[in-house]
Amino acid sequence: MSSNPQPIVLGKLGSSYGIKGWLKITAYTDSVEGIFDYSPWLIKEQGEWREVKVTQWRYQGKAVVAALEGVETRERAQMLTNCEIGILPEQMKDLPEDEFYWRDLIGCEVINTKGYNMGKVDQIVETGSNDVLLVKANAKDSFGKAERMIPFVTEQFIKEVNVSAKQILVDWDPDF
């Protein structure tokens, strides 16, 4: 799988559930059941990605559990605990022109409304109230910052996102 694009991680397999090989699922999708919109899954087992199919899934209390093809015992399920769940980039749904995936923002240059280049988006942190861009500052940052945390609040701080140009325009003081 080394010549293929890197899978996009959508969640991970949790602990085994029951004696028939079911596993708890931790989903990183907007809604828990959204992870089941994708098929097949790739799971990273012992450092290697391999394809699997979900044969059944259901809510179990507040958790979600699933059965995977070929996983029929508790012992086999336990071997998969904590394996990442991924999909290939081409499996991602196309979005309307004015929408984007968070992964599209990684590496974008962040420039404030006064033209100051603050650096590049290194990651996005979920805080509960709003997501936050973690921006790694340029090597010669004139404000002495190594990184900045900018709340992803559209209209207030995020003025424009141009994914094709890999730029984000923000209303943010570079000294903050």
From TrEMBL:
GO terms for molecular function: ribosome binding. GO terms for biological process: ribosomal small subunit biogenesis; rRNA processing. It comes from the Bacteria. GO terms for cellular component: cytoplasm; ribosome. The keyword Transport does not apply. SUPFAM superfamilies: PRC-barrel domain, Translation proteins. Pfam families: PRC_RimM (PF24986), RimM (PF01782). It is found in: Cytoplasm. Keywords: Chaperone, Cytoplasm, Ribosome biogenesis, rRNA processing. Its main location: cytoplasm. Residues 102-174 form the Ribosome maturation factor RimM PRC barrel domain. Residues 10-89 form the RimM N-terminal domain. PANTHER family: RIBOSOME MATURATION FACTOR RIMM (PTHR33692). Binds ribosomal protein uS19. HAMAP family: Ribosome_mat_RimM. An accessory protein needed during the final step in the assembly of 30S ribosomal subunit, possibly for assembly of the head region. Essential for efficient processing of 16S rRNA. May be needed both before and after RbfA during the maturation of 16S rRNA. It has affinity for free ribosomal 30S subunits but not for 70S ribosomes. The PRC barrel domain binds ribosomal protein uS19. Belongs to the RimM family. This is Ribosome maturation factor RimM. The gene is rimM.
